[in-house]
Amino acid sequence: MEEAGHSNAPKAVEAPRGTLSGRVDEKGRLKLPAAIVQYLEALGDKKVFVTTLNTSTALIYPISVWRETEAMLQEPGEDADLRSDVAFVANHYGEDTEIDGQGRVLLPTTLRRDLELERDDVHVLCFKQRIEIFGSKVYAQRLEAAKSGLADKLKALEKKGLR
6 or 115: which carries more pLDDT confidence? Predict the structure, then answer.
């Protein structure tokens, strides 16, 4: 029986904001920023799935979030082939791993080589319940693309309620 005022639903955990810095060492381990480690601990997920979906940024999924994503990718429907292809790429590059006691996560070898993350300074941010890792080159390209036509982007979004 549930006590009044208590719920068995998982508590909402707020993800860290902003872009954080990290570095991939010579062994392929990414030292996660403390705010990311605290976020994962608050979720109760020490186990993660590390992969890519777009072959330009690495993704760290808390295992609970990856299970939901994996279930969605396995759903039947008219876009089953799209889902199957994305799942294939995710599994090609991905591996289950755990955050070690020093807040590091091992990036799969194929992933870090193909995404040029070896011995690189990286940019880390939380978005859509996952942790995105941008290598320095991809981050610079993404930032330039985001800044292109920014005044027009802002005007359009302000009309939709951006403050």
Answer: 115
